[in-house]
Amino acid sequence: MPKTLTDAWARVRTVLDAHAPSTARTVRASAAMGDITEAQSVMGQPFPDAVTDQLLLFDGVEPNPVAGVLLPPLYIPVGVHRMQMLWQRKRAASATPAIGEDAVGIAGEPCREFHPLLVPIGDDTTGDLLVVDNRPGELRGSVLTWGKADGFFGAPTWRSVPEMWADVASALETGSPQGAEYEDDPNMTRNGCAAVFTADGILEWEF
Q: Are 92 and 40 in contact (CB under 8 A)?
């Protein structure tokens, strides 16, 4: 497993344990490799290595829309079973052809419909998703925001899953208790969010 991902996740866990224990308790243990293999079969694609590596570090978090919002601004990291369910649900509602039927495309390209080579990793529970782009090309493995109304347009938010977690870790490390004044400018994530820790031990994102 790449050191960059394990190091970034270790930094995230250190801050959560210290400043957001309620959010830390929503994090699940690692996924079973058999479940990951089954999801890849159902979704008709091998996952980018970083997606598999993340699932082996932790199988998403409990679907708690208050304490479980670990990815900015409002996304709950999903485990392998919810990843598969969200993919199936979005594909059933999409007009984009299945893989092998002129639907491959290039990573990073706009797509209004839910492309079969998008892998959900975050869910805001309203229909919008954070996804890893598994289409071929230079931007394969990048992390995109896919909206139920507009699909995906613009540049990827993060170039990779390890970059995303490193960005989140930096924001957490400069976070502040709720209501406190920042002594210095906090680290903002690539999508413009700063970490705040509530008195109840919950991570929130200001954006």
A: no
Q: Which residue has the tokens 């999903």?
A: 78
Distance CA 55, CA 62 (A): 14
Looking at residue 78, what is its pLDDT?
98
In 10 A of CB 112, how many CB atoms? 15
Here the tokens at position 206 are 């200001």
In three-state secondary structure terms, 108 is coil
pLDDT tens sequence across 67-87: 999 999 999 999 999 999 999
CATH of the domain at 177: 3.40.1580.10
Residue range of the domain that includes 175: 3-206
The tens digit of pLDDT for each residue in 185-206 reads 789 999 999 999 999 999 999 9
Q: Which residue shows structure tokens 């980018």?
A: 48
Say how many domains are in the chain.
Answer: 1
Sign of the Cα torsion 6, 32, 130, 73 reads negative
Under 8 Å between Cβ of 126 and 148: yes
Listed residue (108, 109, 51) closest to 83, CA to CA: 51
